[in-house]
């Protein structure tokens, strides 16, 4: 398994990603590329355009050239790897693909994007049908958009763009914000256990619709407790913590505590933000925090195990 897939998918529709344009989508719509979840398929299900696919599929080309799709990342960032998934496309997948990236300020139109300066981050690579292709990216640039090129045509089920969020926080100058929000640049950097679901889920936007959209650990059989560490969007002072156990009816933690860390490594300064505090199942808890110490990370300890739907840490950047 590629290490980069533990990082968030910056292009995910749930995070605000959008497929803004494509050269063609005659057989299957371009928006499918960034849907959450695994692609589905039901054999011998035909519509007016043929077999229905959960993906993006172009017509058969009869002229020179290749097809492409432009994707606006939901969160700008440094891309560490790309997954091109041709699930269920067995006789109609593209034999090759490449990926380019661009950094464009503001809210560009498709025409403006096509005229942008593009950098190749994944060279033309061979694809197989009905398979996931994990392609590592070594470019250190910060990008806002990617372009998937397929040669010459065919179908791709999903495009995943895993990386580290690097949003523009200048719009929050002088304002409060959720310092733990993924879309603001926060990231879970360490976790004791992620048996049932990924820890970065707790800092996703919106409300968790079910247990799998939060973070849930295995049942502990020792005397310890589970925990995760959130690298904040920036060094800041946290005033309000929201600990949400929505949908966790019989597997919510009994208690939670929050510890701020200013810096990294053994020399990081520790700040007690919230002492061990009782939680209720299926409840959004809000706790005012009385301190003025800036921190860069927060450790969330749950006792002894269980799950959280969301963690919000509201405050100000220093």
CATH architecture of the largest domain, please? Sandwich
* Contiguous uncertain segments of 5+ residues: none
What is the top-level CATH class of the largest domain?
Answer: Mainly Beta
In CATH, what is the homologous superfamily of the largest domain? Galactose-binding domain-like
Question: What would you call the structural class?
Answer: mainly beta
Count of alpha and pi helical runs: 1
Query: Main sheet, how many strands, which sense, barrel?
Result: 8 strands, antiparallel
Strand proportion, as a percent range, falls in: 35-45%
Shape: globular
Order of helices and strands: EEEEEEHEEEEEEEEEEEEEEE
Roughly how many Å is the radius of gyration?
21 Å
- What is the CATH topology classification name of the largest domain? Jelly Rolls
Task: Please give the alpha-carbon distance between the first and last residues.
Answer: 38 Å
What is the helix content? under 10%
Number of strands: 21
The count of domains is 2
Q: Give the mean pLDDT.
A: 95
Structure description:
The chain is mainly β. It has two domains: 3-165, Jelly Rolls (Sandwich); 169-317, Jelly Rolls (Sandwich). The chain is 2% helix and 44% strand. It contains one helix and 21 strands. The chain has one helix spanning 110-114, and strands at residues 18-22, 46-47, 50-51, 56-57, 67-85, 96-102, 119-126, 132-136, 142-151, 155-156, 158-165, 177-178, 187-191, 215-216, 226-244, 255-262, 269-278, 284-288, 295-303, 307-308, 310-317. Strands 12, 13, 15, 16, 17, 18, 19 and 21 form an eight-stranded antiparallel β-sheet that branches. Strands 1, 5, 6, 7, 8, 9 and 11 form a seven-stranded antiparallel β-sheet that branches. Strand 2 (46-47) and strand 3 form a beta hairpin. It is globular, with a radius of gyration of 21 Å. The chain starts with 17 loop residues before the first strand and ends with a strand. The model has no long low-confidence stretch (mean pLDDT 95).
């Amino acid at each position: 398994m590629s290490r980069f897939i533990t990082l968030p998918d910056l292009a995910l529709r749930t995070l605000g990603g959008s497929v803004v344009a494509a050269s063609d989508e005659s057989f299957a719509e371009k928006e499918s590329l960034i849907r959450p979840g695994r692609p589905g398929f039901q054999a011998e299900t035909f519509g007016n355009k043929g077999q229905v696919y959960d993906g993006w599929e172009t017509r058969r080309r009869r002229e020179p050239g290749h097809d492409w799709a432009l994707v606006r990342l939901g969160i700008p960032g440094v891309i560490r790897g790309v997954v091109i998934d041709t699930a269920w496309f067995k006789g109609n997948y593209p034999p090759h693909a490449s990926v380019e990236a661009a950094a464009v300020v503001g809210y560009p139109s498709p025409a403006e994007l096509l005229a942008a300066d593009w950098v190749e981050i994944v060279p033309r690579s061979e694809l197989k049908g009905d398979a996931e292709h994990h392609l590592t990216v070594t470019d250190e640039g910060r990008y806002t958009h990617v372009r998937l090129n397929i040669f010459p045509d065919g179908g791709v089920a999903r495009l995943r763009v895993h990386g580290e969020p690097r949003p523009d926080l200048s719009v929050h100058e002088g304002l409060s914000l959720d310092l733990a929000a993924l879309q603001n640049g926060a990231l879970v950097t360490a976790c004791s256990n992620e048996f049932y679901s990924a820890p970065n889920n707790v800092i996703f936007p919106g409300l968790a619709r079910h247990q799998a959209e939060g973070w849930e650990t295995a049942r502990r059989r020792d005397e310890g407790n589970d925990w995760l560490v959130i690298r904040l969007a920036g060094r800041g002072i946290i005033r309000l913590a929201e600990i949400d156990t929505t949908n966790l009816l019989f597997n919510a933690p009994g208690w939670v505590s929050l510890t701020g860390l200013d810096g990294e490594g053994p020399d990081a300064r520790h700040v007690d933000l919230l002492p061990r505090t009782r939680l209720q199942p299926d409840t959004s808890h809000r706790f005012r925090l009385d301190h003025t110490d800036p921190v860069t990370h927060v450790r969330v300890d749950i006792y002894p195990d269980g799950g959280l739907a969301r963690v919000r840490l509201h405050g100000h950047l220093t």
